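re: ur question from yesterday

yeah so i grabbed the chain u mentioned. its 91 aa long if i counted rite. heres the sequnce exactly as i have it in my notes:
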Amino acid sequence: MLDEIAKVFQAMTAEYEATETLESKVAHDADKIETLLQTSEYRTQGYAAEAWQDTSIHALRTESAKQLAQAITTSNPRGWWMAFASSYHEL
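ran it thru and got these structure tokens back, copy pasting raw so excuse formatting
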């Protein structure tokens, strides 16, 4: 990798790890939201995932991510799919 490109990646990684900018907070939250979606799927399948869910929710930094977490934890993960599948019509 060229030094110039390596420096860009190093700077982005440092920014992400520092978690001081809005962008880095959103990136961290996106990672936890994805984990919450997985947790929701696992719970639907009968697996115990409450600790994983609680840890992910506690780590959220932005209000919008907390609102998404609320929606994820209070809805059926298959609900959106069933609505889509029933309304889908082949082109």
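noticed a couple things. The first helix runs from residue 3 to 18. also Helices lie at 3-18, 22-44, 50-58, 63-74, 79-87.
anyway ttyl
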